[in-house]
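Reopening: structure tokens for the FE2/S2 (inorganic) cluster complex, inputs below.
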Amino acid sequence: MTNSPPKDEGARNQPGEKTPAAAPNQATKAAPASDGGKDGKGKIEPLKMRRRIIWASIWGFIGINVLMMMRFFFPRILFEPKTKFIVGTVPDFGLGVDTRFQQQFRIWVVRKPDRVFVIYARCTHLGCTPDWKESESKFKCPCHGSGYDSDGVNFEGPAPRPMDRARVTMNPQGQIVVDTSKLFKCEKGKECEFDDPDAYIPV
Ligand code: FES
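Re-run output (same inputs, fresh job):
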């Protein structure tokens, strides 16, 4: 029994056969041609770089113009509070002055034994907003000291006349609708408008 000597790996290949180790080397050489414009060192070619910069500039210019056009859809508007709004039903208000709507609509709702009316919270001197002083049962203007009773009638300070009243109507649901675009005045020497049917709601 004779032992034949072990053949080494290279000896297994027949003359003329390609060795498997040659394939990876070929693939490595082909790679740079399909690498997104990068040269063999991984850098972007100058021509492609210039193109990218030009396109980025064009898109940037278009984007800025589109944003400027969009701005026209959102003009700078000062939104005034609504002049017509609902404040509730008559039973929502107890006797006296209700200040709940002063901040939002600049009004006070006043309920008397026989009527509900709405005072527009603007001093008739120079237009400041008076404060309701519950303990003194009066409105006091912080600007020059005018005082008004709970009906909004002036009795002290430089205010020339009572504060105006807003139109009030009832809608079909029995709610009080206030409209501050229509104000009723009570000026000296003129007929007082406070008894106009739209200036109060009888209760
Ligand atoms: S603005 Fe009210 S007293 Fe002058």
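The mean pLDDT is 84. The first strand starts at residue 84 and ends at 88. Marking as resolved unless the reporter disagrees.
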